[in-house]
């Protein structure tokens, strides 16, 4: 795999991303650095191997794109960085995408949505970073950071959702590729007013919501919900549960220690948590939080700043 990657992130976190990938900031929401090693970068929404740098025109891009389609199904994304300057290029990128698809001819019939591809099928990406410059690269879809163009996994907020936190958990479950099933027991720490509990109840799970504050009335009436008005850091379930969910405004290392304790005591099989980030030294803080969680016995730890995350990241692991 090529060692030179283009990465995109939430605007304002490009320095953190560049630090993670041992690279440099190119522009707001953009960094250039090394390829993934043992894991994908926490702050990288999407990345592509830099296989060509060209003008963002169909004439320049089409021959390179055709070389990377393979013989079977493929995915194709044209995206811009999620910044003020990048979003101003959306019209150019959309027009380029239309022209390229028209130029693919019969091969275009093999295009599929990225989330419908087989693991080895290529996802060809074009990142339009200015009116003069575009980066092109392709990877097997199993190796990309996101199956959404530019990593912008926009979740529609369902009717009745009590807060925007609902979109965060919907995206998190999409990212990890699994979700609670009917009858599974979930603990939601810091649950009020119920943004995450809303999602879990919609999955027909049973929920123990731990928060001293009130839950939204419509959620509070659900028979599958037990609201425990307790301190989330002191609560322990009577018996091990299937899932631990946590979205609390506390220092990330404090939440990491709480998750680690649940791991050491075998209180849950899986964990999904937000970690709120400080204004400075975010990469070392994430590294320390990861170390603490892993020391609690949690395995296959993944961390990512998802599209709906603001000054926070999402964590997933299993026992």
Written account of the structure:
The chain is of the alpha/beta class and 319 residues long. It folds into two domains: 5-151, 2-Layer Sandwich (THUMP fold); 165-318, 3-Layer(aba) Sandwich (Rossmann fold), CATH 3.40.50.150. 27% of the residues lie in helices and 25% in strands. It contains nine helices and 15 strands. α2 (58-67) crosses α4, α5 packs across α6 (195-202) and α8 runs parallel beside α9 (282-295). The radius of gyration is 21 Å and the shape is elongated.
Entry keywords:
alpha/beta; 2 domains; Rossmann fold; THUMP fold; 319 residues; seven-stranded mixed β-sheet
| Percent in helix | 25-40%
Under CATH at level 1, the class of the largest domain stands as Alpha Beta
Please state roughly what percent of the residues sit in beta strands, choosing from under 5%, 5-15%, 15-25%, 25-35%, 35-45% or over 45%.
25-35%
First and last CA, distance = 31 Å
Series of secondary-structure elements, N-terminal to C-terminal: EHEEEEHEHHEEHEHEHEEHEHEE
Overall pLDDT: 97
Supply Rg: 21 Å
CATH-defined architecture of the largest domain: 3-Layer(aba) Sandwich
CATH topology of the largest domain: Rossmann fold
